[in-house]
Amino acid sequence: MPLQYDSEFWSVLEPLVPVLSKREPLSLDNIKAGREAREAGMRALFDRLDICPEVEQRSYQVKATDGYIISVLALTPTVSRSDPGPCLLHFHGGGMILGSAEIQARPLAQLVSATAVPVFSVNYRLAPEFKGTIPVQDGYAALLWLNSKAKEFSVDPSRIAVLGESAGGGVAAGVALMARDKGLKPRLAKQILLYPMIDDRNMVANEAMEPLAFWKTADNATAWTALLGDQAGQPEAPISYYSAPARAPSLADLPPTYIEVGGLDIFLQENVKYATRLLAENIPTELHVYPGLPHGFEMIAPNITTAKKANENRYRAILGI
């Protein structure tokens, strides 16, 4: 049976096809223009969402391990909680080469409004200007900072989870691996990985899926090359598994995990394989595959039935921290 979009999703997508079809592939030869175009598209999608006045925003400055200053956007309920509780350390999407916490502020505010769980979103450094493990190092520095500020933010340090979409899901997974390896205490409570970008070896297109995919295999190759250089995609290359978590030789001792991915996402196989490996290590793992939906489906069509169900599943996972 040929692959096809979910019918409800297609009803939303069809009017947008003329605009989306004009989108240029990402290129490292003109990264600035590519960033600006893709980020403008992301802003247009997120600006459709309601503003949440019950969620306040504040930016903090955090020193990375090399002394570089990164910013963390805190989104918290305006009504403070009396007892320490859970929180999310978030990493935005954007293929490791674009995006920001501020661009995703509206969907993050909706998450905070729905769950009353504060979010701290990290503006990790982007490729190609910053390569290798730097995004994950930034994320881990933010995690240490959040642990050190737990009392100030009314956070229970044993109930901190990492959350990320797409490239941010890859950073979140890398931070979880780094926290495990460094023996961080308290341990991370959970990792919530939304269609995470975790395997640089994903360089060959699925010919049946590619025409329906939103994040194309060529874009994936460009993004990984931006982060890892010419070694990206080479199975025997000495690439850190913090950058490409699917390369980790062991997934033992990682926190309970939530993973979701669309059935028309080029990350489908790497995400399902990662979940299977976690289960083989007896890590409590929840996996959702949404048939007929591409990468970032809930951004395009936030009001379709499956997008609402996906949000319900995410919120339930968050409330279980």
UniProtKB/TrEMBL annotation:
Keyword Ribosomal protein set for record: no
Q: Which residues cross the membrane?
A: none
- Which segments constitute the Alpha/beta hydrolase fold-3 domain? 88-298
Q: Which UniProt keywords apply?
A: Hydrolase
Q: Which InterPro entries match?
A: AB_hydrolase_3 (IPR013094), AB_hydrolase_fold (IPR029058), GDXG_lipolytic_enzyme (IPR050300)
Show the GO MF annotations. hydrolase activity
Its recorded name reads Alpha/beta hydrolase fold-3 domain-containing protein
Species source reads Fusarium oxysporum f. sp. pisi HDV247
Q: What is the lineage of its organism?
A: Eukaryota, Fungi, Dikarya, Ascomycota, Pezizomycotina
